[in-house]
C-alpha cells in the first residue's frame, strides 16, 4: 500500500533490502519499486525485503555511512516499519540527520547539490510487531498474519493427529 500510494503520488519509491544494514551497505540494496514488484505480497507473512539487526547502525559511524548512501541516492524520506529497535533508530537518525550531512559536506563526501537536495529527512514510523504490544492500537502490523500462520499450523497438526488416531503435544 505504501509503495502503490507513493507511485500514485508521482514519487520514486525504493525498497531498501535488509533495513538499516542495507542503508549502510549501500545502493546495491536500494531497489526501485514498481506496481508489479509489490504484487501478490499482501497475504505473505514477514517481509519480502528482508530484515537485519544492525549493530553498526547503533554507532554514529554506521549512521554516517547510511546518511551518505541515502543522500547519494537522493533518498530523503523513509517509511520505517518495525518494533522498538527500528523506531528508536529512526528517531535518532532523524535527530542526527543535519549534523550527519554537515559532517559529510565538511569531509567533502557530499557535493553541495547533494547536501542541499537532502537537507531534511522525513520519516514515517509504523509499528510492525507480531507481539501486538503497542498501546493505542487494536492490532499492530504483523500480528494478524502471525496469528493466521499459527492457526494454519495447528489445523494441519490436528488433521495429521486425527488421521493417525493419535494425540500430539
UniProtKB/TrEMBL annotation:
The UniProt entry lists the main location of this chain as cytoplasm
The answer to whether the entry has keyword Aminoacyl-tRNA synthetase is no
* Pathway field: Carbohydrate degradation; glycolysis; D-glyceraldehyde 3-phosphate and glycerone phosphate from D-glucose: step 3/4
Q: Which reaction does it catalyse?
A: beta-D-fructose 6-phosphate + ATP = beta-D-fructose 1,6-bisphosphate + ADP + H(+)
Recorded protein name is: 6-phosphofructokinase
Origin species, per record, is Brachionus plicatilis (Marine rotifer)
Keywords for the protein's UniProt record, in alphabetical order: ATP-binding, Cytoplasm, Glycolysis, Kinase, Magnesium, Metal-binding, Nucleotide-binding, Transferase
Instruction: Please cite one Gene Ontology biological process associated with this protein.
Output: canonical glycolysis
Asked whether the UniProt record includes NAD among its keywords, one would answer no
Phosphofructokinase domain boundaries: 1-169
Query: Where does this one sit in the cell?
Result: Cytoplasm
| Required cofactor names | Mg(2+)
**GO CC terms of this entry:** 6-phosphofructokinase complex
A Gene Ontology molecular function term of the record: 6-phosphofructokinase activity
- E.C. designation(s): 2.7.1.11
Amino acid at each position: 500500500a505504501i509503495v502503490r500510494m507513493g507511485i500514485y503520488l508521482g514519487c520514486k519509491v525504493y525498497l531498501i533490502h535488509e533495513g538499516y544494514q542495507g542503508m549502510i551497505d549501500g545502493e546495491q540494496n536500494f531497489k526501485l519499486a514498481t506496481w508489479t514488484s509489490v504484487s501478490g505480497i499482501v497475504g505473505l507473512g514477514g517481509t519480502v525485503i528482508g530484515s537485519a539487526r544492525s549493530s553498526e547502525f547503533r554507532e554514529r559511524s554506521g549512521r554516517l555511512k547510511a546518511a551518505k548512501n541515502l543522500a547519494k541516492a537522493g533518498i530523503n524520506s523513509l517509511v520505517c516499519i518495525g518494533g522498538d529497535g527500528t523506531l528508536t533508530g529512526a528517531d535518532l537518525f532523524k535527530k542526527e540527520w543535519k549534523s550527519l550531512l554537515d559532517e559529510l559536506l565538511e569531509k567533502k563526501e557530499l557535493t553541495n547539490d547533494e547536501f542541499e537536495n537532502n537537507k531534511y529527512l522525513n520519516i514515517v514510523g509504523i509499528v510492525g510487531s507480531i507481539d501486538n504490544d503497542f498501546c493505542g492500537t487494536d492490532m499492530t502490523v504483523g500480528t494478524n498474519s502471525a496469528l493466521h500462520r499459527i492457526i494454519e499450523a495447528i489445523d494441519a497438526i490436528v488433521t495429521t493427529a486425527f488421521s493417525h488416531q493419535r494425540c500430539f503435544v
